[in-house]
Amino acid sequence: MGDGKKKPKSPRLEKLSLYQRYLAERDEVLRDKWLESERLAANWV
Q1: Which of 8-35 are b and which e, b meaning 16 or more Cβ less than 10 Å from the residue's Cβ?
Q2: N-to-C CA span, the chain
Q3: Given this model, what pLDDT does residue 5 score?
Q4: pTM above 0.70, yes or no
Q5: DSSP states of the chain
Q6: Is it the case that residue 2 has pLDDT exceeding 60?
Q7: Sign of CA dihedral 7, 13, 18, 22
Q8: What is the C-alpha to C-alpha distance for residues 30 and 33, in angstroms, rounded to an integer?
Q9: Distance between alpha carbon 5 and the CA centroid of its chain, in Å?
Q10: What digits encode the pLDDT tens for the residues 10-25?
Q11: Where does the pLDDT of residue 43 fall: very low under 50, low under 70, confident under 90, or very high at 90 and above?
């Protein structure tokens, strides 16, 4: 049965996972930039 060892991921899956983390981080940064620009624009009105 299982001995607790995980099968190593393929390099392709690791790259995909890394890319997905990059996209999530990028999305968060862009969302924060948008919110900050909206906040600053509201101060001008």
Answers
A1: eeeeeeeeeeeeeeeeeeeeeeeeeeee
A2: 67
A3: 66
A4: no
A5: ---SPPPPPPHHHHHHHHHHHHHHHHHHHHHHHHHHHHHHHHHH-
A6: no
A7: negative
A8: 5
A9: 28
A10: 888 788 899 999 999 9
A11: confident
